[in-house]
Amino acid sequence: MPAKGKHRRPKFLRLPRSIAVLGTGGAALAMPLMGAVCAHAAAPAAAVPSAVQKITTVSVPGTAAEKTAAKTYVVKAGDTLAKIADRQHVSGGWKKLYADNRAVVGGDPTAIHPGLKLTIEGQGAAQPAASTATQASAAKAAAAGYTLPVEGATIGTGYKVPGSMWSSGYHTGVDFVVPTGTTIRSVAAGTVVSAGWGGAYGNQVVIQHADGRYSQYAHMSALSVAAGQTVTEGQQVGVSGATGNVTGPHLHFEIRTTPDYGSDMDPVAYLRSYGVVVG
Hints:
Radius of gyration: 40 Å
CATH class of the largest domain: Mainly Beta
CATH superfamily of the largest domain: Glucose Permease (Domain IIA)
Shape: elongated
Number of helices: 6
CATH architecture of the largest domain: Distorted Sandwich
Order of helices and strands: EEHEHHHEHEEEEEEEEEEEH
Distance between the termini: 128 Å
Helix content: 10-25%
CATH topology of the largest domain: Glucose Permease (Domain IIA)
């Protein structure tokens, strides 16, 4: 029993005069303890370090933006559309690659050759709305640097037409029917390998091009270039005629894998592979 006249003072836990600061998503909320008025107010929000750090955006290789970007691939020896599509991870395989580059490759998907430039669409890339315009642009770009050897001419005897009149048993080029004196032009830039008399071919010129192929122009009545000379696309190399073993004036035109007779390839398919329209 307490002593008379004396009262025990209740003991209270002594707490520091402070506030509890609770973090609420980076903001500071001041909570007075025991209802006491705190003399030390919460610090301004600007003075409290934010829990949210600034994030810097970093470009990571292989992002969707990069995957959708188109690039150019230059065909190498031994390439096929299937091999290229596999190595370049073309979604849709060689058929998609061919569809995207049909204007450049031409009607035969196997007729690609070293130096041919193909467009590789990025994975998941959206196709242009105006596909026809895109193909037309591709054809125009492909045709840049190549042209017909004669303008407005029709083809007489085609490639590989059989016959005993030819020593190989077939026609090794194509004949463009033109009158004597028609300007003959180099189909592309290159270097003249030979220019002069070619026996049954009459007056002829053979030119090597950047892709390793050779073009031959035969039966000309006069030559405008000499061996070792560099020529540009469309440059005059001579004028048509009927020299050599012929039955009438025309241009005999060949594409070869070497400068020599017997290494012929389809000249029309070759020109078309570069976007040149052959009649």
